[in-house]
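Technical appendix A lists one of the benchmark inputs used to test multi-chain prediction within the project. The record comprises two sequence entries:
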Amino acid sequence: MKLFPVIILLTLCHQSLIAQNVLISNKAAVSFFSSTIVEDIEGKSAVGSSAIDAKTGDIIFKVPNTSFQFKKKLMQEHFNENYMESEKYPFSEFKGKLDRPIDLNSNGTYRANVVGKLTVHGVTKDYKTTADISVNNGTMTAKSVFKVKVADHNIKIPTLVFKNIAEIVEVRINALYQPKK
Amino acid sequence: MKKTITLALLFSAFYSYGQVELEQALSTNTNGHEKVSATFKSTRLINGHTNETIHKNELDFKVDHRFGDIAGSNGGLRQFFGLDNSTDIRIGFEYGLSDKLTIGLARAKGATTVQQLYEGSLKYKLLEQTVDGHVPVAITLFGSNTIAAVRANREDPTSATAYENFGDRMNYVAQMIIARKFNSNFSFVLSPTYVHRNFTVFRDQNDLFAIGAGGRAKLSKRMALVIDYFLPFRNDEDKAYLEQVGNRKFYNPLGVGLEIETGGHVFHLNFTNATAIQEVQYITETTSSWTKGQYRWGFGISRRFTLGKE
């Protein structure tokens, strides 16, 4: 029973700690790139949102699928309608953890390993990637590049356009985080 | 030792708690009143228009074909179920001047005696449905002018082509297309239509109102069942005269088809009693009936090209 006050204390501390250490990003850039001999396709969103706990390294990232912009409008329509099924699965999401805490009090640049779960098209997969993090006067930027195998997320490419869409697309993320107010 | 485990458990509890907290911290960006996209896959169902227009700098090339009667007195094996005859053929180009405004040019054979048709059209997205239901329906306006280039019939002044001047060859269509995407699998369209023909066969109506209705139900991600129907509101006296004296009985055009989409191409395989493809003809002059076996096989192929800078 000696533990009880400790729990209370921890809970309280933890709550306040989280509030202090959470950084958020509202206009994160998320893009993906598919390259084949026939065609290069790029989708860009500038409204990804993310939150990170600098102390624990917990990170969450969310982007609305309909926010991706394409050079060809018809592609955008097909992306939402045929591949992502955005009405059924409106968001793509990543929940994970950095392998190290981030010290917001000292400026610096470092690379962190990130592990977590990526949910795209309703299918969740384990992912491991790296993120380049730089801290500058209490704000933080994170950049990451990783590859997603389209078939992993149950996104089927019909044979007719098989040559136009890459089996593995590269996802690029660039986010600026600011302390949560 | 026990304490350590409890503490560890406690922390792991906090770990997940942290995730939840983070999720709450996330302000999910809503794109305001996001517009519904792809209510329909194509600018047309079978006979009728959908609310869809062509995106800016995109060109849509569309070929439509209607064959002869499958069954009935003019069909059957002798005519190879209509494939020996084509009642109408249409080749059209549509270009997106903006995401809302489409300009179109087409040439159709014409299914009645009024033939060699040239069509110029404008289609404008007046209102777009939004995902959050703020705007419940989409409204698109369509207007076209069809010019008949067929040689004027000088012998019979009561015929549909007894043109006296160039103005007689003009035919206009104005349509308000009201559409709603109920969910990703079902979309519906209602189209009050006004057709004006400057010249018609004796006692036919120059002005005709009609209402069109149609829908699309997805069978799979790329295949859908499409259906459309037009109900013209004829003047009873003129209708009776044409039926009795002109021996022409009118039927309402009904089309049923399969829509197949393959990324850039949209194929329509359909059956309809309408012999014509142009609004000015299938709404006003469908004289073939489903019940008499006078329905035909038809197809449409649409291909989109992206022009302009990438």
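Chain A has two helices and eight strands. Chain A has a mean pLDDT of 88. Comparable benchmark entries are summarised in Table A2.
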